[in-house]
Structure formats: structure tokens, C-alpha cells
DNA sequence: AATAATAGTAAACGAACGTTCACTTGGCAA
DNA sequence: TTGCCAAGTGAACGTTCGTTTACTATTATT
């Protein structure tokens, strides 16, 4: 087994148990029978930049684990690998989510928001318990039906405007339950 | 200081150092002067579901740290909180990214892909070193200029088609450098 | 075949871990 | 004021940690 496979097992452990394994646990993961073997294996992994050790000497995941590099804009293009290393990094979850307790993901089925760049099949990240501002995209229950629309206020009246000229704005008749505000759109190809 | 503030400090430590702090380190974070105080504090946090301990008795982040719940579709609506607890969860990074080493984020400036649901200001997650398939969205350098377009092959010739009728398809004259394939679109409101 | 270098096992080390016990302090109720 | 409970300190405990040392087995080189 190669060093990459071992580090993959370690990172699998991290994902599964939400912490890095101890040397004894890496023994079980890899099949080695001595801690010394792990000690040297880990040193090789550090040299290969597969994992890291912090100032206290504890094993931690690589800086790139869970972080993606930001390279600028499309128009500026993609620089050479040398400059990529210095690039700023972000964690997508942290970038998108303020409060995990109140955040949820919904899948989009209809085409009522295509003109706002939300296509059928997209995932929307919504947040509950927030008051919608004018122009926000909201997930709402209107007269026993769920939709995603622009939230508009005009003359004190609430209007739900679709992002598609095919459909007409909705004026809630009986009930209006703004369940969540759309915070982000995620589309995977 | 309340228990939530303490747990916030602990999760800040986790984000910063990529591991959970030891009890001694929590002492420094919180200002307590004895490990016993931490021991009881941690037990309270576990009762309050702010952190967890695994089977080996080690402190690990809560299950929801880094995970978002999936609630179904927009049309099906948002269920009551009781059902939310049982919801499936995903980690957005893991969902979107296959290989961190070859993945990058670019910001979109132009409007050449609006009809494909990619608006100016959106972030695109791109992957380097992959061969584009017909219909993929790619970031390419054509005749010394960078653009994002649909990658189309017709009769053995490569065509770069914009997702906006305002613009015309590009037939590369001298150079064509497909730098990356767009894997995902991320839009934050 | 002899040698050196590499990679593994096994055992022992001090240090740090989380836990427990005994004691002290501070605030509230009787 | 007295007594009680909750909350914090401090020290000691056994366990596990990562590291080191010593030795053995395997592989490659001369």
C-alpha cells in the first residue's frame, strides 16, 4: 500500500469520527504492528504535505483539507501553479453558513426563478427564523401551497414575485407563511 | 460568561487549529484555573448538545458542525422542527469537491453565461486537469483572452458557445487553452 | 556471498491526557 | 448567623499519548 492510500484512510477516519486518529488507531487502520512504523509513516506524510503537525506536535489535517483556493476572476484567468500555492483559501461551508441550526438545503423543482439564475435541480441554502427584507428570495406557504419567490413589499402589502415572466405575481389571499429566506444557491454539474 | 460563549470559543479553536482543544487549552480559552472546572463545563456542553464525545471518550464537534440538513424540495415545503431533526445531512464541501488539490474558485464578472444561470458576481468552482466533455462549461484562454463558455465539439472542431444570445460563438483562431472545467456554481445573497 | 540500507517489530520513556478526590470559596435560604 | 449547595481550585491518579531506543527482517548493491 502506498503512502497516499494510508493518508486517505486517515482522512476517512477524520471525516467519520470528526477528529484525527491517534498513532494506535492508525496502526489498526493501516495494519502496522508497531507505533514506530506509524511514527515514520507520519513523518513521510508530513514531508509529502498530506498531513500536518501543529505547534503542540499534534497531528492535524492539511491546510487544504476543507479549504479551496481562490484564484481571482474568470477574466483574469488561471495563473500558473507557482502562484496557486500562495492563493487565499476559503471553506465553502463557513463562507455560506452563519448558523447551522437554522440552515437547511432544499432542492428546486420548478422554473419559477430561472430569470434570477435559479434553475430546476439547483440546491438552495435557506435560513429559518429570519425576517425577509424587500427583494429577498423566500420559501413561503401561500394558501396551502409552497413556492419560492421574490419577497416584495408595496404600500404595506406583501407581493410574491416569480423570477419568470411566464408566471404572475402572487397576492396572498388567506394565509402567508414565510418559512425561510434563501441565502445561497448551489449548482453542481 | 454563558455556556454558549464558551462552546463558541472551543469551536473557534477548532476552526483555527483544525482540532479540538485539550482541557488544558480550554482552561486558557475560558480563563478557568482548574481542569476539574473544564471537566464539568464540558459535561454541561454535552448535555446541551453543543459538543460530543466519541466512544473513546474524546471531545469531538457536534454532528451538525459542518453539516447542513436536507429537507427535500421547495414544493414539498419545510416540515416542522420535529421532522427536521431526523433529516439527512451533508457537508457542502464534500458534496461539491472531489479533489482539493485541483479545485479552485473564480469570481464571475461578465454576463456571458446568464442564460445558463451563471450571473455576474457568482463564484464558480472549477477543476483543473480534466478533459472537458461536450456541453461542459469551461474556463479557457483563447487568443490571449480568458473566458467562460460552453465547450462544444462539432465535426472535430472546437466551438466555445456563450450562454447569452448577445454574444457569438467563438472559433479559436490561434491558441486554445482549456484551463479548467466548471464543476459547480455558488451564489451568496 | 557479503554488505549496507531500508522497513518493520517490540519495549521503555517522559509528558500530557481526562478523570477523580479532597478542599475552599461565594452566594442564597432558612 | 448558620447551614447548605453550587462552583472553583489544586493535587493526585491511572491511562494513553507521541517519541526514542534497540533489535530483527527484508531488500537492494556491490
Secondary structure layout plus pairing:
The structure is a homodimer of 189-residue chains.
Chain A: H1 3-17, H2 23-30, H3 35-47, E1 51-53, E2 59-61, E3 68-73, H4 81-84, E4 88-90, H5 92-96, E5 103-107, E6 123-128, E7 137-142, E8 145-154, E9 157-161, E10 176-188
Helix pairs in contact in A: 2-3
Chain A binds a DNA duplex (30 and 30 nucleotides) through helix 3.
- The SSE order of chain A reads HHHEEEHEHEEEEEE
Give the CATH topology of the largest domain in chain A. Umud Fragment, subunit A
Tertiary shape of chain A? elongated
The CATH C-level name of the largest domain in chain A is Mainly Beta
Please give the most extensive interface between any two protein chains, plus how many residues each contributes. A-B, 71 and 71 residues
Strand order of the largest sheet of chain A: 5-6-10-7-8-9
Number of strands of chain A: 10
Fourth-tier CATH superfamily name of the largest domain in chain A? Umud Fragment, subunit A
Amino acid at each position: 500500500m502506498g503512502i497516499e492510500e494510508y493518508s486517505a484512510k486517515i482522512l476517512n477516519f477524520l471525516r467519520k469520527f470528526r477528529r484525527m486518529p491517534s498513532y494506535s488507531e492508525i496502526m489498526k487502520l493501516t495494519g502496522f504492528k508497531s507505533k514506530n512504523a506509524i511514527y515514520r509513516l507520519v513523518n513521510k506524510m508530513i514531508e509529502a504535505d498530506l498531513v500536518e503537525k501543529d505547534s503542540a506536535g499534534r497531528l492535524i489535517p492539511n491546510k487544504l483539507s476543507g479549504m479551496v483556493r481562490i484564484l481571482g476572476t474568470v477574466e483574469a484567468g488561471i495563473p500558473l501553479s507557482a502562484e496557486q500555492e500562495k492563493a487565499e483559501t476559503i471553506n465553502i461551508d463557513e463562507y455560506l453558513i452563519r448558523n447551522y441550526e437554522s440552515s437547511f438545503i432544499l432542492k428546486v423543482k420548478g422554473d419559477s426563478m430561472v430569470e434570477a439564475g435559479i434553475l430546476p435541480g439547483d440546491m438552495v441554502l435557506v435560513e429559518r427564523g429570519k425576517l425577509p427584507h424587500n427583494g429577498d428570495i423566500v420559501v413561503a406557504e401561500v394558501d396551502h401551497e409552497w413556492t419560492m419567490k421574490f419577497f416584495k413589499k408595496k404600500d404595506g402589502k406583501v407581493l410574491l414575485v416569480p423570477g419568470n415572466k411566464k408566471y404572475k405575481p402572487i397576492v396572498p389571499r388567506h394565509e402567508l407563511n414565510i418559512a425561510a429566506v434563501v441565502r445561497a444557491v448551489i449548482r453542481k454539474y
